[in-house]
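Can you make up a protein sequence with its backbone structure tokens?

===
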Amino acid sequence: MRLAEIFERVVGPEAPIRFRAYDGSVSGDPDSEVALVIRTPVALNYLVQAPGALGLTRAYVAGHIDVEGDMYTAMRRMSDVVLEDGNKPSALELARIATSIGWVKFVNRVPPPPQEVRTSRLFGRGTRHSKGRDAEVIQHHYDVSNAFYELVLGPSMTYTCAVFDSPEASLESAQFRKHDLVARKLDLQPGMRLLDVGCGWGGMVMHAAREYGVHGLGVTLSKEQADWASARIEEEGLSHLAQVRHMDYRDVPDGIYDRISSIGLTEHIGKGNVPDYFAGLYTKLKPGGRLLNHCITRPRNDQPAMKPDGVINRYVFPDGELEGPGELQTMMNDTGFEIRHQENLREHYALTLRQWCANLDRNWETAVKEVGEGTARVWRLYMAGCILGFERNVVQLHQILGVKLAGTDANMPLRPNFV
């Protein structure tokens, strides 16, 4: 059986993309601007060994499958086809397809590409979410290359959801708007002390220092991030107000901060550790202080926090876990925070990812030279898939504002002044 015929049996004969394979067979819409290309028989080994998303990811990252044209468009069109129940082959049909592929694909095992994280290697650094293992997984994701991140993220070097006033807004203006939204929710004032946990490349502490005269400390487990941020702070003449340290948030001294921002860290700490996480931040705040927690969430509280064997955990965020917004709000509240505001920025993250994808495509050759084609492919696939995830409400992005009361005084205006 030729591969185009198998493709048609799995997704139907009217697939809205082009398909071609190494055996010369073709299928799909010949006029489509995107194409799925099976380059070598090794792709079938990967798909037989791990049917579904994992096998496809391995084959794509290793270069045995290609996507021509816009990755997001290809993924959206294929997902639309797969989601149609009428296109799902029966068990008997799947058995016939497996037989046509040949037994050799079942016995000739091929190793995953080197970009896939082996759980056994992580075990060597301690139990999940221990300090040593957290440092290992953060370095896996964030110490890829500062130069690579500059190509993808642009001048702001901000790897979290931006806030857009229109879909046409520039990424830089949207990232400024996000940092300023956080600053206004926290009611930053000159002379305050801000702690930004999981600070990345220091965008929030630099914004707080530059725009509000705040003394900001950012902490990150990525040494490359800390080194880059420290150099940028020096370049901008903000060293008297802002600093970034390479350290675990759990090691920051207690009780000396007026405000805390946590932008994109909660996803890394593990569901079981979230109560202690919020309790630790609570002790670091002065009475009357505020915490703004900004993180990716599950749409429902009853969904699992992680998929240990999923593509994201294997290739992008090892040990990553997502909670529902209600769970996070409850745990903040149980710690002692009074919840004063919460909002979902799901659509904004889809817009942010679109601009990151465009940056990567525009700088593709330079990115490949910097980190290698396999790693660049991981990012192309991961970010395009995340656009779909946010658009289709598979994941969300919530900001939750809590106050550590001074007695019964929250020091909040009668109506929010940041919406």
